[in-house]
Amino acid sequence: MERRKNEPKVEVLRQRRCLHPHPEQVSDELFTTNDFFDPHDLLQVKYEMLRRVRQDQYTISQAAANFGLSRPSFYQAQAAYEAGGLPALLPKKPGPRRAHKLSEEVVKALREMHNKAPDINPRVLAEQARDRLGVSLHPRSIERALAPKKKKLQP
Asked: At a CB cut-off of 8 Å and minimum separation 6, what does 100 contact?
């Protein structure tokens, strides 16, 4: 039942971050004997792993091994499922989408400090931000925040 990496479903799973990183390690009989169960589908694998423990009385170690996941992955999936049901097993978008420490107020204060002393080093600005604003910033983040905005070129 080996699936090819270029199948459309596998590509969709990859795009949605639901592709099991090690489908070859899924050894549970449901996934090896029934075409409905896809070892590449991480959402399905996690749900069935949880179900095996809850309904079929598998041990956590046994279920995690049969589904190609770790015990910590089991506990994370279990907590997510209990908190939000099946949708909670879907992967979240990774990381912050913006510089969360650099609010408009912080950037405004940094610009004011920079305008008063244009030759000030970003490392010194970071120290001043920590002392005055109570926020810890990396000097490179300050450089990016104070850099002139570039226009995006449209293709």
From this structure: none
Cα distance between residue 111 and residue 142, in whole Å: 10
Alpha carbon distances (Å) from 148 to 114, 128, 143, 145, 154: 13, 21, 10, 8, 19
Q: What's the rounded Cα separation, in Å, for the pair 42 and 154?
A: 36
The residue type of 57 is: Q
- The strand pairing partners of 50, in sequence order, are none
- The predicted model scores a pTM of 0.60
Q: How far apart are CA 44 and CA 105, in angstroms?
A: 44
Q: Exposure string (b/e) for 50-80, b if CB count within 10 Å is 16 or more?
A: bebbeeeebeeeebbbbbbbeeebbeebbeb
Of 25, 35, 34, the C-alpha closest to 66 is: 25
Q: Which two tokens stand for residue 154?
A: 């449209």
pLDDT tens-digit profile of 52-73?
999 999 999 999 999 999 999 9
